[in-house]
């Protein structure tokens, strides 16, 4: 039987010989991650390639800049807001020359429609951009991203998060705390969802085959790395350096600078506290989390921290 071919990619990476199974690339070897990704996709054959039916809605995470011929697949909690601001500056659609001048609330609200998503185009135009544009994405350690998502969306008491967190809190309280009574808004706002409850919620949803919230959905579900031939895959761990590489590749490095980490948030705050939050999570739950995110670990060459000892 012939191997499945996607109408967009035609399984381009199958022409490259697979690497030895023990091959890894050191984190400092930036340009090799995309090669590693392609070879891992070959090893997995067509398992992650979507059905032959062309569904343009799978490209809703892809941001488009026609001036610089950019396609960016934005993964929430991996500096996507900063990349939106960079694209806004490059587009010339906002009165700003520095991404740091753009208010983050405006980025997510009134300026959001200014950057088109790939699924808004006609199918023929989608194919053209997938073929000819510079395509990139950024990834982050899956466990760190989960912790960051819980902090931001469920543990935070910011007023801008309240309407977002209430339905999640209601569901988690009902399922994992057996809270049967109806909670009013004030009561919901007082409920603090623990990190272990959040992890159980995520893996239960994933194991049922449900689509996850985009802030903790798997990378390969959002960005289809075995279908789209990316030109570059950057790491959150080397954000500024990798971002500069992207801007140079599209000849935009003289037009805009990517925001410095220290100017946006505390450096490595989540990374530094990973052990603190994960050390008390039961090994059985950690194994379930790993299984749910195993494709992301393998495709992007991430490993489980030694201190977890779950493998």
**Total domain units:** 2
Distance between the termini: 36 Å
How would you sum up the global shape? globular
SSE string:
HEEHHHEHHHHHEHHHHHH
**Biggest sheet character:** 4 strands, mixed
Q: Residue ranges: pLDDT <50 for 5 or more in a row?
A: 1-28
Reading side by side through the largest sheet, how are the strands ordered?
A: 1-2-3-4
Percent range for β-strand residues: 5-15%
Compute the number of strand runs. 4
**Estimated helix fraction:** 40-55%
Q: What's the alpha carbon Rg, rounded to whole Å?
A: 20 Å
| Number of DSSP helical runs | 15
The averaged pLDDT comes out at: 84
> What class, by secondary structure content?
mainly alpha
Family: Belongs to the sulfotransferase 2 family.
Protein name: Carbohydrate sulfotransferase
Membrane topology: Single-pass type II membrane protein
GO molecular function: sulfotransferase activity
């Amino acid at each position: 039987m012939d191997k499945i071919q996607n109408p967009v990619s035609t399984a381009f990476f199958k022409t490259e010989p697979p690497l030895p199974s023990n091959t890894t690339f050191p984190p400092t070897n930036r340009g090799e991650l995309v090669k590693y990704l392609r070879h891992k996709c070959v090893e997995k054959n067509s398992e992650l390639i979507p059905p032959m039916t062309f569904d343009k809605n799978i490209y809703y995470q892809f941001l488009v800049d026609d001036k610089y011929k950019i396609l960016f697949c934005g993964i929430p909690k991996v500096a996507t807001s900063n990349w939106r601001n960079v694209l806004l500056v490059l587009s010339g659609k906002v009165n700003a020359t520095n991404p740091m001048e753009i208010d983050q609330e405006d980025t997510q609200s009134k300026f959001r429609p200014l950057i088109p998503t790939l699924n808004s185009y006609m199918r023929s135009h989608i194919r053209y951009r997938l073929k000819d544009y510079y395509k990139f994405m950024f990834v982050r350690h899956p466990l760190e991203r989960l912790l960051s998502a819980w902090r931001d969306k469920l543990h935070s008491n910011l007023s801008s998060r309240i309407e977002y967190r209430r339905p999640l809190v209601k569901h988690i309280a009902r399922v994992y705390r057996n809270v049967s009574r109806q909670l009013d808004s004030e009561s919901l706002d007082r409920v603090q969802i623990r990190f272990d409850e959040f992890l159980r919620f995520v893996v239960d949803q994933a194991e049922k085959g449900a689509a996850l919230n985009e802030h903790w959905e798997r990378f390969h579900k959002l960005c289809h790395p075995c279908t789209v031939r990316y030109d570059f895959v950057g790491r959150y761990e080397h954000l500024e350096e990798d971002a500069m590489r992207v801007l140079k590749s599209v000849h935009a490095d003289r037009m805009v600078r990517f925001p410095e980490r220290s100017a946006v948030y505390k450096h490595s705050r989540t990374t530094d506290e990973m052990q603190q939050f994960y050390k008390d999570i039961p090994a059985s739950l950690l194994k379930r989390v790993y299984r749910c995110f195993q494709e992301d670990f393998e495709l992007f060459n991430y490993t489980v921290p030694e201190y977890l000892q779950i493998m």
